[in-house]
């Protein structure tokens, strides 16, 4: 994906709060702004793209070969919401 630099001028109180938010989330101001823009645009990862954190979890919970996640999800929702 092609990346480009942009310059954004923000008022001091807003920038101060944005910097605090970035620090609390462990991200840079640029990463926070990029994520906000992606959310506003309805961005979704490319199909098949699995984040490294999710890949690291693969196989961490042993499941029976015939386990169906959709059935398990539906049962959990029924227990939680009584539907």
TrEMBL record:
Highest rank taxon of the organism: Bacteria
Pfam families given in the database record: DUF6364
InterPro entries: DUF6364
Organism in which the protein naturally occurs: Hymenobacter mellowenesis
The name this protein goes by in its record: DUF6364 family protein
């Amino acid at each position: 994906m092609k990346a480009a630099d942009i310059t954004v001028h923000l008022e001091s109180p807003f920038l101060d709060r944005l910097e605090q938010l970035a620090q609390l989330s462990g991200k840079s101001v640029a990463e926070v702004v990029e994520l906000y823009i992606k959310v506003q645009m309805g961005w979704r990862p490319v199909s098949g793209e699995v984040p490294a954190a999710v890949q690291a979890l693969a196989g961490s919970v042993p499941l029976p070969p015939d386990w169906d996640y959709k059935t398990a999800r539906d049962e959990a929702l029924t227990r939680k919401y009584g539907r």
